[in-house]
């Protein structure tokens, strides 16, 4: 089985119950980030190596380890640095001369900014069946005395060569998480005084080729702009010394658009992912959700029509108000005394109609509002057989309206005048110091 991440790491310890530490060795020349960024990026092929080489003195129950030359090869990238990527800790070192059993409890702690033991890039982190495996790249070899040492392992598999013993931790280790301890056992012949072995860590990771981190302000209003920045990192969270160029994309360009520099322009209220992909290389990419906040869109009649549904009639971005926006109708629109008329049903957030002569003519259609709805002195919402539907929760209403259907919960914060009937269906309309007047019930 080919591991999704091969990490060879050097152990350095002495004495009973001491810790096994990852050795310091790298051919990268860079240093990892002290506060690793969150992970965003594509899945890919495994690439990583670090090593642990240990010498055991049986009688004194000591395990002493030192840095040695890590293995190399064409299928992986060699990295290192003690206690930066993985920390392996052992406790409860014991030797029973009668049975020849040498045991110690070992834990693995993940320090890199992506999980070990999974290829899942979602929050679910579905575990890889192989878990996190610590395998013997060099089997135990007797260095003092005579006899044999055998690993009582969980199994054998092909990692860097055939039939290598391993211990398997059936877990997913997120950054800084420590595994439950597992007892390692060696069967040692009576004449063995010391022995040596080397192990590596094999685990699946979601982004073995590295990832792209996007930073910036991820909240933008419709019509406004936010600058985002992309940076490429390798699989263990080191910033690439030479940054690649990136291409940018908005998954839903109706919500937001992004140019080639990462400048985001808010369009419609909602959320969309912004994706940055490196040009060339391994094709690393990252994504972040951008939230486009609701906006106040103002009627201008600039298109020279009364059509509510014509984008050019609205400022600031020539987009028709969407269900989370507030539509503002001024008394003197920029395009002259032309006021909006519905030619189809429409949904809106809030509605504000200025003083007379400002108005909205819904005609025979329905205008559904989920926010606050107000008309000022002389301004109104009018229609023939159409209905203003109040669907919001804990919202306010006041002014002059045609037929009204209340399905949400509204409170009067001004007097309400209805030129047609009022119907409350599963909703509530509360009034304290204000009144409702119906001219044509």
Describe this protein's structure.
- It is a single chain.
- With 441 residues, the protein is mainly β.
- Helices cover 0% and strands 45% of the residues.
- The protein has strands at residues 6-8, 19-20, 48-49, 52-57, 62-65, 77-78, 86-96, 101-110, 132-145, 149-151, 155-157, 164-169, 182-188, 192-203, 211-216, 219-221, 225-233, 246-250, 256-258, 263-266, 270-278, 285-293, 296-299, 314-315, 326-329, 346-348, 350-353, 359-361, 366-369, 373-375, 380-382, 387-390, 395-401, 403-406, 409-418, 422-424, 428-430, 436-438.
- The strands form eight sheets. Strands 23, 24, 25, 27, 30, 33, 35, 37 and 38 form a nine-stranded mixed sheet that branches. Strands 1, 4, 5, 9, 11, 12 and 14 form a seven-stranded antiparallel sheet that branches.
- The protein starts with 5 loop residues before the first strand and ends with a strand.
Summarize the structure.
The protein is mainly β and 441 residues long. It is built from no helices and 38 strands. It is 0% helix and 45% strand.
Shape annotation: elongated
Radius of gyration: 34 Å
Q: Tell me the total number of β-strands.
A: 38
The residue ranges in which pLDDT falls below 50 over 5 or more consecutive positions are: 1-50, 66-82
How far apart the termini lie comes to: 79 Å
**Class by helix and strand content?**
mainly beta
In DSSP terms (H or I, runs of 4 or more residues), the helix count works out at 0
Mean pLDDT: 82
Looking at this protein, list some descriptive labels.
441 residues; mainly beta; 0% helix; single chain; seven-stranded antiparallel β-sheet; elongated; 45% strand
């Amino acid at each position: 089985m080919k591991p999704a991440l091969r990490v060879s790491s050097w152990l350095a310890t002495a004495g009973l119950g001491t810790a096994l530490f990852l050795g310091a060795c790298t051919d990268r020349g860079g240093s990892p980030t002290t506060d690793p960024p969150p992970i965003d990026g594509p899945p890919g092929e495994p690439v990583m190596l670090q090593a642990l080489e240990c010498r055991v003195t049986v009688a004194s129950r000591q395990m002493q380890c030192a840095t040695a030359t890590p293995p190399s090869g064409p299928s992986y990238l060699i990295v290192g640095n003690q206690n930066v990527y993985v920390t392996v800790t052992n406790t409860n070192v014991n030797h029973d001369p009668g049975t020849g059993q040498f045991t110690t409890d070992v834990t693995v702690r993940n320090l890199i900014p992506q999980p070990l033991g999974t290829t899942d890039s979602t929050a679910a982190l579905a575990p890889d069946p192989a878990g996190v495996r610590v395998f013997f790249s060099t089997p135990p070899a007797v260095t003092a005395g005579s006899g044999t040492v055998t690993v009582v392992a969980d199994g054998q598999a092909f990692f860097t060569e055939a039939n290598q013993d391993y211990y398997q931790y059936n877990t997913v280790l997120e950054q800084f998480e420590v595994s439950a301890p597992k007892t390692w056992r060696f069967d040692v012949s009576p004449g063995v005084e010391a022995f040596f072995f080397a192990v590596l860590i094999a685990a699946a990771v979601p982004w073995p080729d590295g990832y792209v981190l996007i930073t910036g302000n991820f909240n933008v209003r419709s019509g406004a702009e936010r600058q985002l920045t992309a940076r490429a990192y390798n699989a263990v969270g080191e910033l690439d010394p030479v940054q690649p160029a990136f291409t940018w994309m908005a998954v839903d360009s109706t919500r937001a658009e992004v140019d080639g520099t990462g400048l985001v322009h808010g369009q419609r209220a909602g959320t969309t992912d912004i994706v940055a992909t490196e040009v060339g290389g391994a094709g690393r990419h990252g994504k972040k959700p951008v939230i486009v906040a609701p906006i106040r869109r103002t009627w201008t009649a600039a298109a020279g029509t009364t059509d509510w549904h014509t984008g050019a009639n609205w400022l600031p971005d020539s987009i028709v108000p969407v269900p989370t926006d507030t539509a503002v109708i001024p008394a003197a629109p920029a395009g002259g005394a032309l006021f909006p008329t519905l030619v189809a049903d429409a949904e809106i957030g809030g509605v504000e109609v200025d003083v007379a002569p400002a108005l909205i003519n819904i005609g025979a259609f329905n205008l559904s509002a989920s926010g606050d709805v107000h008309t000022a002195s002389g301004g109104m919402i009018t229609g023939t057989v159409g209905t203003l539907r109040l669907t919001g929760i804990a919202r306010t209403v006041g002014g002059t309206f045609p037929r009204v259907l209340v399905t949400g919960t509204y409170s009067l914060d001004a007097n309400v005048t209805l030129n047609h009937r009022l119907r409350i269906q599963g909703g509530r309309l509360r009034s304290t110091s204000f009144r409702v007047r119906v001219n044509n019930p």
